[in-house]
Amino acid sequence: MMHTEPLVVIQPSRSWKLISLKDLWAYRELLFFLTWRDVKVRYKQTALGALWAILQPLFMMLIFTIFFGRLAGVSSAGIPYPLFALAGLVPWTFFSNAITQSGNSLVGSANLISKVYFPRLLVPAAAMLAGLVDFALAFVMFCVLMAFYRVAPTVQVLFVPVLVLLTALFALGVGTWMAALNVKYRDVRFALPFIIQLWLFVSSVIMPSASLPLKWRRLLLLNPMSAIIEGYRAALLGLPFDWPALGIAALLTVATLLYAIYSFARVERSFADII
User: Fold this and answer.
1) Separation between Cα atoms, residue 116 and residue 7, nearest integer Å
2) pLDDT digits over 54-74, tens only?
3) Which residue of 24, 69, 82, 244 has the fewest C-beta atoms within 10 A of its own C-beta?
4) Could you tell me the residue ranges of all domains in the chain?
């Protein structure tokens, strides 16, 4: 019996590329499908459904207000502390959920990855994009709270889409890197919630960085989420922007994303074998 070579071999390129826009565009419908799947699965068989997207930052805001706003008397730059806290918690909740879901996305899609080829980057990207639905719902709740406290938005609110893009790109970078590591080292699944918990306390969610000594503020520049969260407060509540900190955050975001894609591309071909 004669053996013939296959006419078409489907595999990722052997030459390393940061990202193939042509491949991603060709599989754009799959990205939409995976995103929609993640949205539906997230709240499947839950009694409250998408309300969890609102309840999570809302209850965190209440706890922070009681312990840090009332008991500890944390400064909130003249803004009512519930509004101050929620302005940080809404983007932080999106970021933390996005990297958690992205970090576990490849392992959760093992059956799909082991059967067919497609750009594996779509899996963590879809997990991140699904989190934007929760972010939109929580943002509506924040707008309601702004109306309750009679805080009117200024022209600075036009900068919010840029901040959302920065948050999404940074979450994609961290989530993609964690996803690649999680395929080989399943410890990542257990370490990630702990890391995110610690990360919260160094991200200017509880208090403004201006209330810290100068040496600690300089260290916070290494954490893009700190400047990004303060950027949200400036855009939504009319506070002054810290443009140098936002510039550093943007550079670190791009660097993180490029490194994550590089690390991801190096091990992508082995996913189907070890997942």
Assistant:
1) 17
2) 888 999 999 999 999 888 878
3) 244
4) 49-274
